[in-house]
Amino acid sequence: QVLVVESGGGLVQAGGSLRLSCAASGRTASNYAMGWFRQAPGKEREFVAAITWSDGSAYSADFVKGRFTISRDNAQNTVYLQMNSLKPEDTAVYYCADAYSRRSMWVLRGDYWGQGTQVTVFS
């Protein structure tokens, strides 16, 4: 399995920015993409964005298009999520994980999640 360490979360005022990092290790051939997911209290975990290691093809959920940008540094085995124009509804624990797409829906590969990083946006 791919092990991850998420970091970069914190408190930020609405309209501000944060850059999350995901350091990955234990990659295998089946790990062709990484995804960011988030979960807020009382809500199900949801897909945020994903990126392939090979060519950096990026995908994102409709509710973050134009605000969040995912990127990766293959040499560092690290995936980033640049979050701009943050809104209070973005408040959640953000997780990075090995992911794949199934009928245009990005889901977790396996059953491993890191510790996550808390993002809190206040107005």
What's a quick, concise take on this entry?
With 123 residues, this protein is mainly beta. The protein is built from no helices and eleven strands. Strands 2, 4, 5, 6, 9, 10 and 11 form a seven-stranded mixed beta sheet that branches. A four-stranded antiparallel beta sheet has the order 1-3-8-7, with no helix packed on it.
Structural features:
54% strand, 123 residues, mainly beta, seven-stranded mixed β-sheet
Q: What is the strand content?
A: over 45%
- Helix-and-strand structural type: mainly beta
The H-and-E topology, N to C, reads as EEEEEEEEEEE
Radius of gyration: 13 Å
Query: How is the biggest beta sheet arranged?
Result: 7 strands, mixed
- The helix tally amounts to 0
Unreliable segments of 5+ consecutive residues = none
Give the proportion of residues in helices.
under 10%
> What form results from the Cα inertia axes?
globular
Give the N-terminus to C-terminus distance in angstroms: 39 Å
Overall number of strands:
11
* Mean pLDDT value: 95
